[in-house]
C-alpha cells in the first residue's frame, strides 16, 4: 500500500481559485510556454541532445575555421603529398597535392553548413508563404500554386542545375538559390495541408468576427499554430541540402575550386581511391555525422511535440510491475 | 416599444452542391430559405431547432461571417451585406459572437490577455498598458481571476474558457451579440453560472442577444421572444411564455413534448415524431414538416404555408395551427 | 428485493498521468437488479464513464488499473478474470452502446454485415441464418424496410438510424446487461425521444437490465428505476428515482436540480448556481469532496469524509447533514489515503 500513497500524492492540476479576489493584483507571471515544455522533453532525449551537441561543434568549427585549421587548405605542397595520418603536423595526413586534409575538412564544413542552412531557410520561408496563402484562401489561388508545385516537382532538378550553372556560372549563391527553388515544394504542401485544417478552427472564425484581416489571421493566428511541423521539416531539410550539395559538387556541378566542400573532396578522392582510400572516408564521415545529427535533432523535436509520449508508457509498465508487487 | 435593432428580410443561404468532372452545380442545400425576423433593442431573441435546421447558419449570415445568397440584414439601420470589407471590419465593433465550443474558439497559442485584448488592439488606439488595464477589468466583469491573464487557454476549465470568449465579445462594448449555442457544451452547474453572467451583462450593458440553442429550457429562461426553425424555414415566432404554454405549430409542440423533464412523476403525453429530418438539399414540397406531421392533410403537401400572425404576438407558418379555430386538435392524437 | 444481476463494491480505479496516479473513481458501490435500469448521473469528469469502462474491464486498455473492489456479475468477480476470459462475457452477456454512433460502426461494412458478424461471433450461426436474424433485429429496433437498410453503409444512414443499428448489434447476443454511455447525447431531441422509447420498449420486452450513463437529469427521470449521482469520482447519493427527485438530499444533487431552468413558472430570474468549480481529481479537498462548494458546510465536513448514510427507503447520501437521521457511517477503509 505504501507505493500507492506515494503515487497518489501529486496533483494533476493546481487548484483553481474559486472566485476572483479583490486583492491587489500582483504582476502576472508568465508560465512555461509551449516552447519551454518542448525543450524540457527534447533535452531528455539522448539522441537529440547528442545531435545538437555534435551540430554545435561543427558550427563552431566552421565559424572559427581560421583559428582551428593549422594549414591553408589550398596550399599545395608536392613534397609532402599522400602523407599518412599523424605525420608531422598533419593530423589526418595530406592528399595527392600535399594539402592538409584536416584543414580542408574544416574549411569544407563552412560551405556545407552554409549551403545546408541557407537552403533550408529560404525554402522554408518560400514554402510556408506559398503554402499558407494557398491553404488559407483556397479556390483558384490554391489551384494555381498547386499546379505550379506539380510542375516544379516534375522538372528534373539536376538538369535545371546544370542549365543554371552553365548560364550564370558556378557561384555558391546560385547553388543555394537553385537548391532552395527546387526544394520548397515539400514545405508548401505541408503548410497548405496544415492551413486547410487550421482555417476550419473556430478561433479563426472568432478572429474574423472580431474584424481581423485575412493577413492578420494567416500570420498572427495560423502560422503560429503551424510552426511546430514547419520547424521539424526545416531541420530535416538542412540534412537534405547538405547531401544535395555534396552530390552536385561530386559531379562537378556545385562548388568549384579553389573553394572546397565535402562533396568536392569526395569527388577528388575517386582517382586516388586505391592509393589512399581514407581521402574518401573523411569527408564521407563528416557528411554522415552532420546529416545524422541534424536528423536526430529533427526527430527529437517531432517526438517532443508529440503528445503521445513513449516515455510515459515505459513508466506505466514500471509502475504496473511495482503495483503487482504490492499485492493487489 | 423599443426600436428594432436587427432586421432580417427574406434571407436565403444556399450552399451549392458540386458534382462531376466539371464541378457543375447540380443542386443547392437550402440551409436558410427565406427567413425574416426582427430583434428589438435590448431584448433576447431565442432561436431553436434541431441540428441542420439552419439556425447557426442564419446567425452567421446575420453577422456576415457568411454571405447571404439573397435578402438583407440591417443592424442599427445599416445593411451589413452592402458594406465594403473595410466598413464591415469597422462595424464588427458593434456586433459580436460567442461560440459553442469553448475549446476550439480560443487560439491555443495565444495568451488569455492576447485573446481578450485582440479586438482592442484592432479597433482602438489604446496603448499596451491601457489594453492590459482593460483586460483586467473585463476579466473581473466575467468572473475570471485577472492574475491568470498571462496563461494559455488550455489551463482553464470549459466554463472559464467560455467566460474568456464572452470577455472577448464584450471588449468593445458591442450593441448586438449572437450567442451560438454558447452554453450547450457546458455542464448543468456551469451552464447556470454562464447564463446568469450573460443576463447580468445584458442588464449592465444594454446588450441585444440572438440566443441560438437547442436546449429549450435554457432558451425559455433567457429569451423574451422565441423563433422555431425547421429545415431552413422559420415555422413559429412568438412571445416566450405563450409559445411554450400553447405551441401553435405541430413541430413546436412535438419539440417541446420530446424533452425529458426532470421529474419522474409527470409522465408527459409525448408526440413522438416518426422518421428523421429530411435532407435540406431536397426538402419536401408544400409545408416542409408535412412528412412527419401527425396532423398533415392534403393541402400541406401542396401549398407552402406563410408565416403570419394568428394571435397577438404569435406568428406561425401552418395551415392548421393547434388551438386555433379550424386548426389541429391535440386531443385527437392517439398517444 | 429483486435479484441482483450486477453488484459493484468499493470499486476504485486509478489512472497513471504525467504527475502520478490519480483516482478516477473512489469506492463506488452500486447494484443493478434484473430487468431494471440504473442511471449513473454526473457532470463531465465525475467518473461515470470510467465506472462503466471498469465494469467492462476496458479500463485496462486506457492506462487505467482497478485498485480495489469487486465487480460481481452473476456470481463471478470480473476483477479477478483474465482479459481472455472477459472476452466471452463482453459483447455477449454484457453489451455496450456509445455516445457517437457513427464512430462505433465500421464505415466499410454494410450495417447488415456488421450485425450478422456479431451474431456469428457469439452464436455460431450460419451466414444465411445470421443475415436473416440481422434483418429481424433491424426490424425490432424500428428501422423501416430493414431488407434495404441492411445493405446500406453507415454513412448512408442518419445519426438516429445509426444509433438504432448500434443498439441492434448490442442486442444481437441477447445480453443480460446493456451499458449505454450517453446514448442520446449526440442526437436531436426528437430523435432522442425515439431512442429512449426504443430502449424502454426493449427493456420491457427482453428483460434486459440497463446501466444508463447520462448527464441529463431529464433523461434519468424518464428512464431510471434507480439513480446514482456521481461527483468527483464518488457516488454521493443513490436511491430510487422517486426518492431522488421527490426528496433530493445531498446538497450537490439539490444544487444540480435547482440549476436547471424549468419549463414552467417564473423565467428570467437569476438561476441557482453551485459556487466554484469541480475539483481536479488529483487534488480533492480534505473531508467531504463537496465541502468547498457546499452551502451547508460544517466543521466536520472539512475533516472527515462521510460514508453512506440512509435518508429514506433504499436512499443513501454521503452527507453529514443526515447523521442523526440514519446510522452514522464513516467512510470505509483507506480513508487515510486522502490525508
From TrEMBL, chain A:
Record-stated family: Belongs to the binding-protein-dependent transport system permease family.
InterPro entries xref list: BP-dependent_transpt_permease, MetI-like, MetI-like_sf, OppC_N
Stretches that traverse the bilayer: 46-65, 111-136, 148-167, 173-191, 230-253, 273-298
Membrane topology label: Multi-pass membrane protein
Extent of the signal sequence: none
Coiled coil: none
Keyword Calcium belongs to the record: no
PANTHER family: D,D-DIPEPTIDE TRANSPORT SYSTEM PERMEASE PROTEIN DDPC-RELATED (PTHR43386:SF1), OLIGOPEPTIDE TRANSPORT SYSTEM PERMEASE PROTEIN APPC (PTHR43386)
Region (Disordered): 1-30
Localization annotation: Cell membrane
Keywords linked to the UniProt accession: Cell membrane, Membrane, Transmembrane, Transmembrane helix, Transport
Organism listed in the record: Paenibacillus cookii
Entry keyword annotation includes Mitochondrion: no
Residue ranges of every copy of the ABC transmembrane type-1 domain listed in the record: 109-298
Protein's UniProt name: Peptide ABC transporter permease
From TrEMBL, chain B:
Occurrences of domain ABC transporter (ranges): 6-256
InterPro entries with a match to the protein in the record: AAA+_ATPase, ABC_transp_ATP-bind, ABC_transporter-like_ATP-bd, ABC_transporter-like_CS, Oligopep_ABC_C, P-loop_NTPase
Pfam families per record: ABC_tran, oligo_HPY
SUPFAM superfamilies cross-referenced by the UniProt entry: P-loop containing nucleoside triphosphate hydrolases (SSF52540)
Entry keywords, A to Z: ATP-binding, Nucleotide-binding, Transport
Gene3D superfamilies for the chain: P-loop containing nucleotide triphosphate hydrolases (3.40.50.300)
CDD domains from the UniProt entry: ABC_NikE_OppD_transporters
SMART domains: AAA (SM00382)
Gene Ontology molecular function, alphabetical: ATP binding
Sequence similarity: Belongs to the ABC transporter superfamily.
Listed PANTHER family: D,D-DIPEPTIDE TRANSPORT ATP-BINDING PROTEIN DDPF-RELATED, TRANSPORT ATP-BINDING PROTEIN
NCBIfam families linked: oligo_HPY (TIGR01727), PRK11308.1 (NF008453)
The protein's name: ABC transporter ATP-binding protein
Taxonomic placement: Bacteria, Bacillati, Bacillota, Bacilli, Bacillales
UniProtKB/TrEMBL annotation, chain C:
Main location: membrane
Membrane topology: Peripheral membrane protein
SUPFAM superfamilies in UniProt: P-loop containing nucleoside triphosphate hydrolases
GO MF annotation: an example: ATP binding
Domain of life from the UniProt record: Bacteria
Subcellular location(s) of the protein: Cell membrane
Keywords for the protein's UniProt record, in alphabetical order: ATP-binding, Cell membrane, Membrane, Nucleotide-binding, Transport
Boundaries of every ABC transporter domain copy: 6-257
Entries under PROSITE patterns matching the protein: ABC_TRANSPORTER_1, ABC_TRANSPORTER_2
Family affiliation: Belongs to the ABC transporter superfamily.
Name of the protein in its database record: Peptide ABC transporter ATP-binding protein
Amino acid at each position: 500500500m505504501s507505493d500507492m500513497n506515494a503515487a497518489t500524492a501529486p496533483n494533476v492540476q493546481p487548484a483553481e481559485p474559486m472566485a476572483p479576489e479583490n486583492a491587489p493584483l500582483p504582476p502576472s507571471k508568465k508560465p512555461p510556454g509551449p516552447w519551454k515544455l518542448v525543450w524540457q522533453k527534447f533535452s531528455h532525449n539522448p539522441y537529440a541532445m547528442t545531435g545538437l551537441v555534435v551540430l554545435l561543434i561543427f558550427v563552431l568549427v566552421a565559424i572559427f575555421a581560421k583559428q582551428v585549421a593549422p594549414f591553408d587548405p589550398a596550399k599545395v605542397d608536392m613534397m609532402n603529398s599522400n602523407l599518412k595520418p599523424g605525420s608531422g603536423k598533419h593530423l589526418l595526413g595530406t592528399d595527392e597535392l600535399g594539402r592538409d586534409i584536416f584543414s580542408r575538412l574544416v574549411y569544407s564544413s563552412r560551405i556545407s553548413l552554409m549551403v545546408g542552412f541557407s537552403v533550408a531557410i529560404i525554402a522554408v520561408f518560400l514554402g510556408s508563404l506559398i503554402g499558407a496563402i494557398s491553404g488559407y484562401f483556397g479556390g483558384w489561388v490554391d489551384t494555381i500554386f498547386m499546379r505550379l508545385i506539380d510542375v516544379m516537382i516534375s522538372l528534373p532538378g539536376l538538369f535545371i542545375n546544370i542549365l543554371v550553372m552553365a548560364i550564370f556560372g558556378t557561384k555558391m549563391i546560385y547553388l543555394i538559390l537553385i537548391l532552395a527553388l527546387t526544394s520548397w515544394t515539400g514545405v508548401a504542401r505541408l503548410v497548405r495541408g496544415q492551413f486547410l485544417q487550421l482555417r476550419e478552427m473556430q478561433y479563426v472564425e472568432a478572429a474574423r468576427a472580431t474584424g481581423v484581416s485575412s493577413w492578420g489571421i494567416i500570420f498572427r493566428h495560423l502560422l503560429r499554430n503551424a510552426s511546430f511541423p514547419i520547424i521539424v521539416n526545416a531541420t530535416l531539410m538542412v540534412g537534405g541540402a547538405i547531401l544535395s550539395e555534396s552530390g552536385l559538387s561530386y559531379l562537378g556541378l556545385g562548388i568549384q575550386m579553389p573553394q572546397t566542400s565535402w562533396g568536392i573532396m569526395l569527388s577528388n578522392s575517386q582517382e586516388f581511391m586505391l592509393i589512399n582510400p581514407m581521402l574518401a572516408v573523411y569527408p564521407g564521415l563528416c557528411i554522415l555525422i552532420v546529416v545524422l545529427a541534424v536528423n536526430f535533432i529533427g526527430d527529437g523535436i517531432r517526438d517532443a511535440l508529440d503528445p503521445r509520449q513513449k516515455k510515459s508508457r515505459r513508466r506505466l509498465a514500471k509502475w504496473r510491475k511495482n503495483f503487482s508487487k504490492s499485492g493487489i | 416599444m423599443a426600436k428594432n435593432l436587427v432586421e432580417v428580410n427574406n434571407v436565403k443561404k444556399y450552399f451549392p452542391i458540386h458534382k462531376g468532372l466539371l464541378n457543375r452545380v447540380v443542386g443547392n442545400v437550402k440551409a436558410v430559405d427565406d427567413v425574416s425576423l426582427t430583434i428589438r433593442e435590448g431584448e433576447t431573441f431565442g432561436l431553436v431547432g434541431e441540428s441542420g435546421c439552419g439556425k447557426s447558419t442564419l446567425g452567421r449570415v446575420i453577422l456576415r461571417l457568411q454571405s447571404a445568397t439573397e435578402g438583407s440584414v440591417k443592424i442599427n439601420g445599416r445593411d451589413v451585406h452592402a458594406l465594403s470589407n473595410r466598413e464591415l471590419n469597422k462595424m464588427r465593433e458593434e456586433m459580436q459572437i460567442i461560440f459553442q465550443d469553448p475549446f476550439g474558439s480560443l487560439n491555443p497559442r495565444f495568451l488569455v490577455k492576447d485573446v481578450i485584448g485582440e479586438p482592442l488592439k484592432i479597433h482602438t488606439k489604446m496603448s499596451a498598458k491601457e489594453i492590459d488595464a482593460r483586460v483586467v477589468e473585463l476579466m473581473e466583469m466575467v468572473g475570471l481571476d485577472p492574475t491568470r491573464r498571462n496563461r494559455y487557454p488550455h489551463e482553464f476549465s470549459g466554463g472559464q474558457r467560455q467566460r474568456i470568449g464572452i470577455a472577448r465579445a464584450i471588449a468593445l462594448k458591442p450593441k448586438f451579440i449572437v450567442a451560438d449555442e454558447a452554453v450547450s457544451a457546458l455542464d448543468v452547474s456551469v451552464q447556470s453560472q454562464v447564463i446568469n453572467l450573460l443576463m447580468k451583462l445584458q442588464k449592465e450593458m444594454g446588450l441585444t442577444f440572438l440566443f441560438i440553442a437547442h436546449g429549450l429550457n435554457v432558451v425559455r429562461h433567457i429569451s423574451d421572444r422565441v423563433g422555431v426553425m425547421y429545415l431552413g424555414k422559420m415555422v413559429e415566432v412568438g412571445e416566450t411564455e405563450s409559445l411554450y404554454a400553447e405551441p401553435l405549430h405541430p413541430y413546436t409542440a412535438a419539440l417541446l413534448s420530446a424533452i425529458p423533464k426532470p421529474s419522474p412523476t409527470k409522465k408527459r403525453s409525448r408526440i413522438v415524431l416518426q422518421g428523421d429530418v429530411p435532407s435540406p438539399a431536397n426538402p419536401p414540397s408544400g409545408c416542409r414538416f408535412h412528412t412527419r406531421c401527425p396532423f398533415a392533410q392534403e393541402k400541406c403537401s401542396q401549398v407552402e404555408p406563410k408565416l403570419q400572425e394568428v394571435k397577438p404576438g404569435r406568428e406561425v407558418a401552418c395551415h392548421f395551427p393547434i388551438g386555433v379555430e379550424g386548426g389541429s386538435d391535440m386531443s385527437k392524437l392517439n398517444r | 428485493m429483486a435479484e441482483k444481476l450486477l453488484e459493484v463494491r468499493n470499486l476504485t480505479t486509478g489512472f497513471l498521468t504525467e504527475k502520478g496516479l490519480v483516482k478516477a473513481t473512489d469506492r463506488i458501490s452500486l447494484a443493478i437488479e434484473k430487468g431494471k435500469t440504473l442511471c449513473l448521473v454526473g457532470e463531465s469528469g465525475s467518473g461515470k464513464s470510467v465506472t462503466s469502462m471498469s465494469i467492462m474491464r476496458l479500463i485496462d486498455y486506457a492506462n487505467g488499473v482497478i485498485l480495489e473492489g469487486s465487480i460481481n456479475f452473476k456470481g463471478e468477480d470480473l476483477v479477478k478474470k483474465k482479459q481472455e476470459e472477459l472476452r466471452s462475457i463482453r459483447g455477449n452477456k454484457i453489451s455496450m452502446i456509445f455516445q457517437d454512433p457513427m464512430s462505433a460502426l465500421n464505415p466499410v461494412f454494410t450495417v447488415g454485415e456488421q450485425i450478422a458478424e456479431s451474431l456469428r461471433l457469439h452464436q455460431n450461426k450460419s451466414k444465411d441464418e445470421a443475415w436473416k436474424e440481422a434483418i429481424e433485429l433491424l426490424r425490432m429496433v424500428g428501422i423501416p424496410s430493414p431488407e434495404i437498410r441492411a445493405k446500406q453503409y453507415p454513412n448512408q444512414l442518419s445519426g438516429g438510424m445509426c444509433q438504432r443499428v448500434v443498439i441492434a448489434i448490442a442486442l444481437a447476443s441477447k445480453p443480460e446487461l446493456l451499458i449505454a454511455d450517453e446514448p442520446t447525447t449526440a442526437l436531436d431531441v426528437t430523435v432522442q425521444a425515439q431512442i429512449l422509447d426504443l430502449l424502454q420498449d426493449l427493456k420491457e420486452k427482453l428483460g434486459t437490465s440497463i446501466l444508463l450513463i447520462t448527464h441529463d437529469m431529464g433523461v434519468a427521470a424518464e428512464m431510471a428505476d434507480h439513480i446514482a449521482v456521481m461527483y468527483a469520482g464518488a457516488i454521493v447519493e443513490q436511491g430510487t428515482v422517486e426518492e431522488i427527485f421527490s426528496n433530493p438530499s445531498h446538497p450537490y444533487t439539490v444544487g444540480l436540480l435547482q440549476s436547471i431552468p424549468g419549463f414552467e413558472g417564473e423565467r428570467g430570474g437569476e438561476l441557482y448556481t453551485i459556487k466554484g468549480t469541480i475539483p481536479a481529481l488529483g487534488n480533492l479537498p480534505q473531508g467531504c469532496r463537496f465541502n468547498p462548494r457546499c452551502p451547508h458546510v460544517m466543521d466536520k465536513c472539512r475533516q472527515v469524509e462521510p460514508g453512506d448514510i440512509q435518508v429514506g427507503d433504499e436512499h443513501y447520501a454521503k452527507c453529514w447533514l443526515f447523521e442523526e437521521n440514519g446510522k452514522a457511517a464513516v467512510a470505509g477503509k483507506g480513508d487515510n489515503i486522502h490525508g
